[in-house]
Design brief:
Length: 135
């Protein structure tokens, strides 16, 4: 669990809370239906039945909002982690690219074309790595 993705943990906790909310709503509905059965007049029976329906309806709405919020948070976290990883990758690629360029500059070149090719090669490799990281 220590190396688990936090977005998966967020979704899992939301599912557990969702089950808890729906179980509590079921208990409350059963309680109101029991009170409706015991009620002596028609108005009280109808009021308790209405309360039972409302309790279930409100709990379903709360559970739905909870799941939607948790999905949004988990998606935002996953997106932020991907963007942070992508932002760090080009920096390390640039550091690696600088070393071969310095080594190529230290060697005597035979002309203008040779020095341009030596400078472009590390930049192309860094660009390819950045494209692969985004995919």
């Amino acid at each position: 669990m220590a190396d688990a993705d936090l977005d998966a943990v967020i979704r899992q906790l939301a599912k557990q809370q969702n089950k808890t909310i729906l179980a509590a709503a079921k208990k409350r509905k059963d309680r109101f239906n029991g009170l409706a059965m015991k009620a002596k007049d028609k108005d009280a029976k109808e009021r308790f039945k209405m309360l039972a329906r409302e309790a279930v309806e409100q709990a379903n709405a709360a559970a739905r909002r909870l799941l939607i919020s948790a999905d949004n948070v988990a998606d935002s976290y996953a997106r932020a982690m991907r963007q942070a990883a992508a932002a760090e990758l080009p920096k390390t690629a640039e550091k690696k690219a600088d070393k071969p360029a310095d080594a190529a500059a230290a060697k005597p070149s035979t002309g203008k074309a040779g020095s341009k090719a030596a400078k472009k090669a590390p930049a192309k490799a860094a660009a390819k790595k950045a494209v692969k990281a985004k995919a």
